[in-house]
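S1.2 Input.
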Amino acid sequence: MRQDPVKLLDVVALLVDKPEDRLIAGHVGTVVEVFSPDAMEVEFLGPAGHTFALTELKRSEILLLKHEPDPRPAQGNGQRSNSVNLDIAPTSATVNP
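S1.3 Output.
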């Protein structure tokens, strides 16, 4: 699996527990500083929007989250796709009172 470079303000998920920072795998944070391709500072917010952890992490400790489809063209290599086509045609419905 390729690892895309992490940029400022990217949203990431923690892959490991960090008990010293009160973080567990799965916490979602925002990259607030990139020191190198393998080191970044990530801020984690609670439900009320307050910072509960600000810590330096390695690239191997995070998963870069995606919010848009892969811009690369689909490959016709016979592999099964995990995407779902939601082309839904409008329908007319009759409601009986």
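S1.4 Remarks. The two ends are 55 Å apart (CA to CA).
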